[in-house]
Amino acid sequence: MGSVNSAISFISFFEDSYMLFTVPKFDYSYKKQIINPKKVYSIDNGFSNMNSASFSKDLGKMLENMVFLALKRKYKEIFYFQETWECDFVVKERNEISQAIQVCYNLTQQNKDREINGLLEALEKFNLKEGLILTYKQDDEFKINNKKIKVLPVWKWLMD
């Protein structure tokens, strides 16, 4: 039990010093948001890279962290969404979810179903007509179940 409390204390310390940010799982119940697992993002990709125990760079995670930081500058309430599938980010504005965003370094045949299904699940849940998949360099657009899915390189999205 002490180690769990210590980990929570360390995360809180890093959040208070703005080195890390936690993103809660979206739920209409605030109590459930608090007890559900959170995703953690770093203030800086270089900081994460230098302090990672991993032997290889996870470029997808670095891209996701970059997108989070851009969202954090613009929006106050950012969540991830998960029921059957996971959607990396849902943005809440004026008491409703306004955007659903997936991030992957490369949209491939191997990950396409996972990325699209997570996004579609969020679009359906929040009655959104359009979703976004941000990648390193892919640019595409398609329609599934009357939902428009834009695939954009992160740099284009950041320029908007």
**Between the first and last Cα atoms, what is the distance in angstroms?**
46 Å
Helix content: 25-40%
Main sheet makeup = 6 strands, mixed
Helix segment tally: 6
Q: Could you say which structural class the secondary elements and strand pairing correspond to?
A: alpha/beta
- The portion of residues forming beta strands comes to 25-35%
| Count of strand segments | 8
Order of helices and strands: HEHEHHEEEHEEEH
Secondary structure topology:
Layout: H1 2-16, E1 20-23, H2 30-35, E2 39-42, H3 45-50, H4 59-74, E3 77-82, E4 86-93, E5 96-103, H5 112-125, E6 130-135, E7 140-144, E8 147-153, H6 154-159
Parallel strand pairs: 5-6, 6-8
Antiparallel strand pairs: 1-2, 3-4, 4-5, 7-8
What's this, in brief?
This protein is an alpha/beta fold and 160 residues long.
Give structural attributes.
globular; two-stranded antiparallel sheet; 39% helix; alpha/beta; 160 residues; 8 strands; 6-stranded mixed beta sheet
